[in-house]
Design brief:
Layout: E1 11-13, E2 16-18, H1 20-25, E3 27-29, E4 35-37, E5 49-55, E6 61-67, H2 68-77, E7 86-89, E8 102-105, H3 107-116, H4 141-149, H5 152-159, H6 163-176
Antiparallel strand pairs: 1-2, 2-5, 3-4, 5-6, 7-8
Helix pairs in contact: 4-6, 5-6
Length: about 180
């Protein structure tokens, strides 16, 4: 159901309806060439958001929030964007909605722009096919055998840790290091 709305205020962009007058009213040109969107609504990652309406099959509308840079990409491309299409700003300004700074492409394009702007962190992503980070063993086989047979008090005293951690450590070494006999 929801509140009634004046359909004359909304403009169709792709398949959604947006208040383009509000979108344009909240833009602020910068000396750098960026056009910052100054709306209040923010995404968890800091992107600005705008309200939109998505038509349902029954003729009603579903209210939704849309990131403004994605809306700018839709306006630039004059169509809906798929889930696999990334919208990237060549200026790396999270507030910018300048169509000249908007690039619509895939994740490869996004990574290329990030590297060009010095925002790529090679240590953040894992190599292809590696699900878990490799760890370096902290204990030798002899230490593992000793921990398995030692009491909680002995482990806590030797490694200067609380008894609860020593108990957990002994249990883990008994259950998880099964290749060590």
């Amino acid at each position: 159901m929801g509140r009634p709305f004046d359909s004359n205020q909304y403009t169709r962009v792709g398949s959604i309806l947006v208040r383009l007058d509000l979108f344009e009213q909240l833009q602020e040109p910068q000396e750098s060439g960026c056009i910052n969107y100054m709306g209040n609504s923010r995404h968890a990652q800091g992107y600005r958001m705008i309200g939109a309406l998505k038509p349902r099959l029954d003729g009603t509308f579903q209210r939704m929030m849309l990131t403004v840079h994605r809306l700018a990409g839709m306006i630039k491309m004059e169509r809906d964007l798929t889930n696999k299409e990334a919208v990237v700003r060549s200026c790396s300004n999270p507030l910018c909605v300048n169509p000249d700074h908007i690039i619509v492409g895939d994740l490869t394009d996004r990574n290329r722009v990030m590297m060009a702007n010095g925002r790529h962190n090679p240590h953040r992503s894992r190599p292809h096919g590696l699900k878990y980070r490799r760890t370096v063993a902290r204990y030798t086989d002899e230490e593992i055998r000793w921990i398995r047979s030692a009491t909680t008090d002995e482990i806590a005293q030797r490694y200067s840790i609380p008894k609860t951690r020593a108990s957990t450590m002994r249990w883990e070494f008994r259950k998880r290091y099964t290749w060590i006999k």
